Amino acid sequence: MISNRYASLLALLLVPLVSACSADPSVPQPRLPSSTACFITPEGSVPVTLEVAEDFGQRQKGLMGRKALAENEGMLFVYEQPQNPEHGFWMYKTLIALDIAYIGPKGEIGNIRTMAPCSSGNSGNCPSYPARVAFTSAVEMNRGFFSEHGIGVGDRLVVGEADCLAD
């Protein structure tokens, strides 16, 4: 029979182990609140629906573990402070081929990068994709989305249905 003292010690040792298992990055985070948005190009407006990742944990998990992303859906990563050009994203435990647009404070696209999935169990085996420009938000979409819709550097993102209808 285990004494109360040893049972308490065992419980203290198991709690972090169980917590670590439940925080497995390969388990997709639940869908985040979404916002209607659009990309504005010289040719017109491209409507999208974006899940919004606003806090550190949501941004860190992103689209990890997701097996698919609907055609005109993506994820918007919002930062409180401007991020430097060396800051970037990685695809650790991300299963979907994605493109990312790094966006400046006025909604302008500063850079677009293509990112390859990385299902490796070792995060060191996954490349990162630095922005190469300062940015305050970023949008991940299915690979090819930006080129298929003629969206490029200098175009802009507008968030909010009313703002998209006005453009």
From TrEMBL:
InterPro entries found in the cross-reference section: DUF192, Saro_0823-like_sf
Keyword Nucleotidyltransferase set for record: no
Keywords (A to Z) from UniProt: Signal
Stretches of the chain forming a coiled coil according to its record: none
A UniProt-annotated Pfam family: DUF192
Signal peptide: 1-23
Gene3D superfamilies: Protein of unknown function DUF192
Tagged with keyword Transport: no
Name under which the protein is recorded: DUF192 domain-containing protein
Organism of this sequence: Marinobacter albus
Phylogenetic classification of the source organism: Bacteria, Pseudomonadati, Pseudomonadota, Gammaproteobacteria, Pseudomonadales
